Amino acid sequence: MIMPEHFSSGKDAFRGSARLKPMETSNPETIWLPSASVAGSARSLESDRAIERRTRPVFVMGCHRSGTNLLYDTLLSAGGFAVYRGYLPVYKMLIPRFGSLTKLDNRKRMMAAWVRSKGFRRSALDAERLTLRVLNECRSGGDFIRIVMSEIALSQNVARWVVYDPDNLLYIPSIKADIPEALFIHMIRDGRDVALSLSKMGGFKPFIWAREAKGLLPTAVYWEWMVREGRQYGLRTPADYLEVRYEDLVSDPRATLEKLEEFLDHDLDYGHIQKENMGRLRESNSSFSGESIQQSPVNRWRNKLSNHEVDAIEKMVGEYLEELGYPLSSPGTARTSGLREKFTRAFYFNLLNAKLWLKTRTPAGRLANLETLELSDSVEPTGAE
Q1: Helices (H), strands (E): how many in the chain?
Q2: Interacting residues of 68 by C-beta distance below 8 A, sequence separation 6+
Q3: In a domain, 3, yes or no
Q4: Torsion angles phi and psi, residue 92, rounded to 5
Q5: Tally of CA atoms within 13 A in the half-sphere of 151 that contains its CB
Q6: Do β-strands 183-188 and 58-62 pair in parallel, antiparallel, or remain unpaired?
Q7: For 161-188, b where at least 16 C-beta lie within 10 A, e where not — what string?
């Protein structure tokens, strides 16, 4: 985890955040001014493209327990992004439950529920104003996200917003179709550490009738499935998709921030981030935070997993770990997949694909559980949480 003591003294002055200015907009055509020469036109267009990228929305995503929260709070600490601590599960939950947002009745039912959610309460927005905008302007999941986040950004006088939701990894095509200017940051972490952490948190529960989470091996397969899905979608638009390794962000934050700064065209001043120190930069959400002796979150699996457990995980997902550049610790002969590993992988890959298809392509999505929205009985004052 990036902790305050890992940061430098911040000698470089903060270069300023992207604040709203009258000339700034995400639509380049609204500010382009024809010049007297071809060269002048080219310079204007180039300048306009720069303005466009530095105001484009950002989506932080990745398999759960991969450091997405850490990256999100790093970006918020840099400044220039709207600060929002809520939950916008549009593609995962709201559209499957309420149906296409092209229909007014569906938008009405969705908003009647969402204005009672914890996510809305944390937005500090006016329920009546937001509902009116959604009913009049929203026709897709992307429209809903854009309306909510632009309202939050406007209230905070910033020009840009970033959305945090690990599961958006599975909905990159839908997001890109609805918000063509979206930029995606995919956090990737060693699958052995993800399996260890997620298993300890009891996070992978593929069967709705089973309350107990699955063990290390199914969780490792879930990690591979999530990362594969996100990469195959993201790499279709490489100019708008960036992979960031959790290990790099923790071990070499300066170099990682430089790469992010170039991709986002956004000031990510190391010293300023250290000073602001928001969220998970200040307080870890590690599944091992209660232990008396804190160890580095990088390669924690080396100390927490037995040799037998490591061998079993590497038999299951070792090929993909190596494809991503994570070296294996087991001897070559010990990590060869057998029939059991092949069957387990095939079973969970097919199960996860089927569940995603049923939720997003069939009426089964109407059964989407809204429990995680933490709905209140009535519309409560915003900013109460």
Answers
A1: 16, 4
A2: 60, 61, 62, 164, 166, 187
A3: no
A4: -80, -35
A5: 19
A6: parallel
A7: bbbbbbbbbbbbebbbebbeebbbbbbb
pLDDT digits over 168-223, tens only? Answer: 999 999 999 999 999 999 999 999 999 998 888 776 766 654 455 468 898 999 99
**What is the side-by-side order of every strand in the sheet holding 241-245?**
162-164, 58-62, 183-188, 241-245
The amino acid that residue 337 corresponds to is S
- The CATH number assigned to the domain holding 249 equals 3.40.50.300
Looking at the chain, how many residues does it have?
385
pLDDT band, very low/low/confident/very high, at 368 (cuts 50, 70, 90):
confident
CA 225-240-173 angle, 5° bins: 50
User: β-pairing, 58-62 with 241-245?
Assistant: unpaired
The region, left, alpha or beta by phi > 0 then psi within -120 to 50, assigned to residue 270 is alpha
The range of the structural domain enclosing residue 356 comes to 57-282+298-373
Distance CA 61, CA 74 (A): 14
Q: Which of 277, 237, 246 is nearest to 56 (CA)?
A: 237
Q: Which of 95, 98, 186, 82 is nearest to 142 (CA)?
A: 95
What is the total count of domains within the chain? 1
Position 162 in a domain: yes
228 within domain boundaries: yes
Placement of tokens 């470089």 in the chain: 12
How far the first Cα of the chain sits from its last, in Å, is 26
pLDDT (0 to 100) of residue 129:
96
